[in-house]
UniProtKB/TrEMBL annotation:
InterPro entries: LigD_pol_dom, NHEJ_LigD. PANTHER family: BIFUNCTIONAL NON-HOMOLOGOUS END JOINING PROTEIN LIGD. Residues 27-281 form the DNA ligase D polymerase domain. It comes from Halomonas daqiaonensis. Coiled coil: none annotated. This is Bifunctional non-homologous end joining protein LigD.
Length: 307
């Protein structure tokens, strides 16, 4: 079996020739190479976060699964964190991807997508990012683009800096970095208040209705990821979809590109993009924003005619 060395860690990989993306002939070895090459870019988005692995041992044409608990066969040099399962109080060990060797090892385990917590391992109850999940009601990307613009406009009115990325699947994530001073329930309630406000202002385009049947053609402003133990796709993670699309941070000007959609960037072209420009989310976590004043501003805005 091939050996890959990462400093003092050595991985014995298996079946690197195994095809994980049949339509694109992308092998497990190529996924390992991608994880090696992108680790430095992804590291800030993974640092000190528990992750959930999405694995496809037989390739994406076969059923995959989400893997939370660290398997017993994982090497002991892989960092883990014990999180509490709220429903039972039991502890569960999750992977913390803090070194390149771990990242490569996960790829060798056919972990195609990494989903990360919104909180850090030292304060698991206190998220340091707020997430709006925007998926189109149909096949067109334009409603997602419009919703992201409106959310950004509202965040600006609340004096909150926001960031956007393609999910690599169907839509966009809008992310607000936080100072980790409030628990998940409080953050989710704020996100829901923002979503309620926009849905009231734009009732024909946006909704907070959880029932798919009642949404019609309106875009659902999903804030469910702002809950304890919920995860979101990690920036630059590959999705288990034909074409190997990649969740890709954007700057806001790029959102206006007419050829942009949720799958514009892939395992094949993302490295060229990063060779030509830096990560648009570089330095995002410097913005340690609180929500107290934003709540007050939202109350004032709700009483007026803006935004």
């Amino acid at each position: 079996m091939p050996l890959r060395k990462y400093g003092r860690y050595t991985i014995e990989t298996s079946r690197e020739e195994k095809v994980l993306f049949p339509d694109d002939d992308i092998t497990k070895g190529e996924l390992i190479n991608y994880h090696e090459q992108l680790f430095d870019t992804m590291a800030p988005h993974l640092r000190d976060r528990a992750i959930v692995m999405q694995r496809f041992p037989d390739g994406i044409d076969e059923e995959g699964f989400y893997h939370k608990q660290v398997p017993e066969h994982f090497p002991d040099w892989i960092s883990t964190t014990n999180v509490t399962k709220r429903e039972t109080g039991d502890k569960q060990a999750l992977v913390v991807c803090d070194k390149k060797a771990t990242f490569a090892y996960l790829a060798d385990q056919a972990c195609i997508t990494l989903h990360s917590w919104a909180s850090r391992i030292d304060r698991p109850d206190y998220p340091d990012r707020l997430i709006f999940d925007l998926d189109p009601p149909g096949d067109t990307f334009e409603p997602v683009r419009d919703a992201a613009r409106r959310l950004r406009h509202l965040m600006e009115a609340l004096e909150l800096r926001s960031f956007v990325q393609t999910t690599g699947s169907r839509g966009l994530h809008l992310v607000v970095p936080l100072d980790a001073s409030e628990e998940f329930d409080s953050v989710r309630n704020f996100a829901r208040a923002c979503a309620d406000h926009l849905a009231e202002r734009h009732p024909d385009e946006l909704t907070v209705e959880q029932s798919r049947q009642k949404r019609g053609n309106r875009l659902y402003l999903d804030v469910a990821r702002n809950a304890y133990a919920q995860t979101a796709v990690t920036p630059y993670s590959v999705r288990a979809i034909a074409g190997a699309p990649v969740a890709t941070p954007l700057d806001w000007k790029e959102l206006e590109r007419r050829d942009l959609d949720a799958r514009s960037y892939t395992l094949h072209n993302i490295r060229q993009r990063l060779a030509q420009r830096t990560d648009p989310w570089e330095g995002m976590y410097r913005y340690r924003q609180g929500l107290s004043r934003a709540r007050q501003r939202l109350d004032r805005i709700a009483e007026g005619d803006e935004p």
